[in-house]
Amino acid sequence: MRENNSRRQMLLGFMILSAIALVAFFAGMIAPHEPNQTNLGERLSPPSWQYPFGNDNLGRCILSRIIFAARISLYIGVVVVSLSLLIGVALGSIAGYFGGLLDELIMRFVDAFLAFPSMFLALAVIGLMGPGLSNLILALVVVEWTGYARMVRGEVISLKGKEFLEAARSLGAKDSYILVRHVLPNVLAPVLVMSALGIGFTILAASGLSFLGLGVQPGIPEWGSMLDDGRLYLRVAPHLMIFPGLAITITVLAFNLLGEGLRDELNPRFGSSIHEDAA
Predict the structure, then answer these.
(1) Distance from C-alpha of 70 to C-alpha of 75, rounded to nearest angstrom
(2) Domains and their CATH numbers in the chain
């Protein structure tokens, strides 16, 4: 029964994310209006046939902006997690495999980043670098790579005494070959689960930073900045915040469903450690 539930939620998450990805990819064909086209005569108008999600404070079509914003949010999520994976998997596997002083140095470096609350650290990086898409991505990578490093290190340490690694060493295999050919494929499952959960967290964090005015540049459609634009008009035009908020909620929920389903499907024992690292 549990397996069926995990497969259903994984399939549901995958279907929702596939639909969002298709909408983002074909945004230019699907969106009913240009995302930055203003129409002051329709300023703060409620949902209608012409504008299904209504208009914002500049008369722009909210639906069109949400559709184009999906591109930005998915791009941020995928790029941040990919870069975090490259850094975290590389350092975590080196620390776990070689151990000793190298392990101590790498993990103390990780601990230095973990000493700061994640959002405060991201805010500090953006405060130093300034707002913008590239700086937002950099700030989130600084926050996220440590979780992957800790998780991969733990998995590699658990594999070090396995017979197949000893056999590879006895055959004269180099450490680099053992890491790439034998170790990394065996940590792929928890990495996939944590990546799916991590993209959802990244989208949520990016939206939060954009809501604070520290994300993408003004005028670029992004769900968090749309929430910020609608904040002042919450009482007179709540749809300015409702629809971008729903877009964030549905997308993050879909990634969580996919990640939870993958976790249960691949190996239930990864659950607790992944949640701790993702937090």
Answers:
(1) 8
(2) 2-25+57-278 (1.10.3720.10)
